[in-house]
Automatic annotation (TrEMBL):
InterPro entries: PRX5-like (IPR037944), Redoxin (IPR013740), Thioredoxin-like_sf (IPR036249), Thioredoxin_domain (IPR013766)
Protein name stated in the entry: Glutaredoxin-dependent peroxiredoxin
GO function terms (MF aspect): thioredoxin peroxidase activity
Entry keyword set: Antioxidant, Oxidoreductase, Peroxidase, Redox-active center
Subunit architecture: Monomer.
Pfam families: Redoxin
CDD domains tied to this protein: PRX5_like
Domain Thioredoxin: 74-234
Chemical reaction(s) catalysed: [glutaredoxin]-dithiol + a hydroperoxide = [glutaredoxin]-disulfide + an alcohol + H2O
């Protein structure tokens, strides 16, 4: 009797398995739910990438510059403070020079940029002085130097990139020693590019180390610190 009951149970189990298998096979597979053409994931990767907003122009000005007058601790008639700057010479050797070396007994133009390789500095400010270097020297200028709060390696790479020879001396104020001494710091720490503390843009004319002309821009603006502006005051 128990054998008959066991056989019936086994038969029922086998019938249930057959029914489940038949249902699974006969049930049609539903196609995956398609994404709407408006859905961002339905677009090709390249097209989705172009949906991102294009970055705006790089504006090198501090967030607080507009709220205070453009000024520096140095002014016309002052003696330039001493500081040590560095650069690579034509032989690839790292050299140092001082403000006194650049200006003592000379008529010198020192101009500063917020950063090597930045757009305005690379496309307008520095190239302008390179282009006008002969005219400036014809008017008695002995030294033309570009100063930036960048290390000497970056300044050398920038010089090579712009194919500059000896028209303009590119100087590294890596720790901002000279920039701080004349009160021309520009804090760009809060910008997306993270430039930190750099130099305001300016151009100055010094005779025997004394400032005769100081064209100090607001932040990184470029309005009256170019080579043409310095030619006008010589």
């Amino acid at each position: 009797m128990y054998k008959v009951i066991l056989e019936n149970e086994l038969i029922n189990i086998m019938r249930k398995k057959e029914a489940a298998t038949t249902t699974a096979v006969s049930r049609p597979l539903l196609p995956p739910k398609s994404l709407s053409s408006a859905h961002p994931l339905s677009l090709p990767f390249k097209l989705r990438a172009t949906r991102r907003a294009a970055p705006g122009p790089l504006r090198l000005s501090s967030t607080t510059a507009a709220s205070r007058p453009v000024s520096a601790t140095i002014s016309v008639g002052d003696k330039l403070p001493e500081a040590t700057l560095s650069h690579f010479d034509s032989a690839g050797e790292l050299q140092t020079t001082t403000v006194s070396d650049l200006t003592k007994g000379k008529k010198s133009i020192l101009f500063a940029v917020p950063g090597a390789f930045t757009p305005t500095c690379s496309q307008k400010h520095l190239p302008g002085f390179v282009e006008k270097s002969s005219e400036l020297k014809a008017k008695g200028v002995d030294t033309i130097a570009c100063i930036s709060v960048n290390d000497a390696f970056v300044m050398r790479a920038w010089k090579e990139n712009l194919e500059i020879n000896d028209e303009v001396l590119l100087l590294s104020d890596g720790n901002g020693e000279f920039t701080k001494a004349i009160g021309c710091e520009l804090d760009l720490s809060d910008k997306p590019v993270g430039l930190g503390v750099r130099s305001r843009r300016y151009a100055l004319l010094a005779e025997d180390g004394v400032v005769k002309v100081l064209n100090l821009e607001e932040g990184g603006a470029f309005t009256f610190s170019g080579a043409e502006d310095m030619l006008k005051v010589l």
